[in-house]
Amino acid sequence: MEGLIRILEEVKPLLRKGSSNFTFNKGLAKIVTKGKCIVIGDVHGDLETLNKIFETIDLNSFLKDEDNIVIFLGDYVDRGKYSLEVLEKIFRLKLEYKNQILLLRGNHEISKYWDVYPSDFRYQLLEKFRDNYNEIYDRLIDLFDRLPIAAYYEDFLFLVHGGIPIDVKDINEIANEEPNTVIQLVWNDPFEGIGHLPSPRGIGYLFGIDITMSFLGENGLDLIIRGHEPCEGIKFNHNRKVITVFSSKVYGNEYASVLFIDLGKKGIREVLF
User: Fold this and answer.
1) Interval 141-199: pLDDT, tens
2) Active site (catalytic) residues
3) CA 134, CA 225: separation in Å to the nearest integer?
4) Which segments within the chain are labelled E, that is strand?
5) Chain-centre distance of CA 204, in angstroms?
């Protein structure tokens, strides 16, 4: 347990620490490098697929170039068998490459503002730590509250776990971390319609193409990249202006994927696993 606590305490102050690749306005990260970027979607405790991704993309070689970055879109835990191991692996990666790893928050990184049922992660923690469960759980909640909630690359990309809030026009409003805004950032989903609808998830909203186009236009952006929805690799919404990437196979999907992005050239390609 002491080893895990040490990792949590070491990684927490780094989660919103600026560098030559990222700057932060509270929970909103701005990407400033013009290097290459790998975007990894939901992992959900799928350690096997995560290991395969790291091996296939030769992650350590990729990160030898200090201008290159990796962005995780959240949902590290639940559903898969190895949530704690996934968290530890990703946190160790952040400790090793402090200035090149950005960890966003997903809806499964639970909060005082929402909960997730069933939460397999809780049972895994209870089984492993038993009498120390409450201490570990509280430390994780505190750490999850430090995870950035969105990121952007000027004139190009907006990255988030769930979707854009239906009532936010200016991207800088996100930095205020108003609870309803944070909830929507991690819970919202796109739908092929106009306007917005209550989400069938029971929290958040479905947002239509008009909301996407207004947000992109208002902020001078081209694309939204998000996770949150299981799919076979990636899927497109809103005339290909919204890209969903899913990097786990725990929902029975045949493929997982990551995105390779050349930030300087504004090029994107998908890699399937």
Assistant:
1) 999 999 999 999 999 999 999 999 999 999 999 999 999 999 999 999 999 999 999 99
2) 108
3) 35
4) 22-25, 28-31, 36-40, 69-72, 101-103, 150-153, 157-160, 189-190, 196-198, 205-207, 223-226, 234-237, 242-245, 257-262, 267-272
5) 17
Q: Is 61 exposed, middle or buried (0-12, 13-18, 19+ CB in 10 A)?
A: exposed
What is the maximal distance between C-alpha atoms in the chain? 52
Is residue 101 a contact partner of residue 93, using CB atoms and an 8 Å limit? yes
Residue 179: how many CB atoms within 10 A of its CB? Answer: 11
DSSP assigned state of 226: E
Runs of H (alpha helix) within 110-155:
120-129, 133-144
Structural contact between residues 125 and 144, judged by C-beta atoms closer than 8 angstroms: no
User: Is the pTM for the entire model greater than 0.85?
Assistant: yes
Question: How many Cα atoms are found within 13 Å in the side-chain-facing hemisphere of 87?
Answer: 27
Separation of alpha carbons 223 and 107, rounded Å: 21
Residues 75 and 40: beta-carbon distance below 8 Å: no
Q: At what angle do helices 133-144 and 120-129 cross, to 10 degrees?
A: 140
With CA atoms as reference, report the closest residue to 43 among 121, 136, 117: 121
Q: d(Cα 250, Cα 218) in Å, to the nearest integer?
A: 37
- The CB density around residue 246, as the number of other CB atoms within 10 Å, is 28
Q: What is the CATH number of domain 2-272?
A: 3.60.21.10
pLDDT for 110-121, tens place per residue? 888 887 877 888
Under 8 Å between Cβ of 36 and 263: yes
Cβ-count burial of 239 within 10 angstroms (0-12 exposed, 13-18 middle, 19+ buried)?
Answer: exposed
The 3-class SS string of 159-185 reads EECCCCCCCCCCHHHHHHCCHHHHHHH
| Distance in angstroms (rounded) separating the CA atoms of residues 157 and 155 | 7
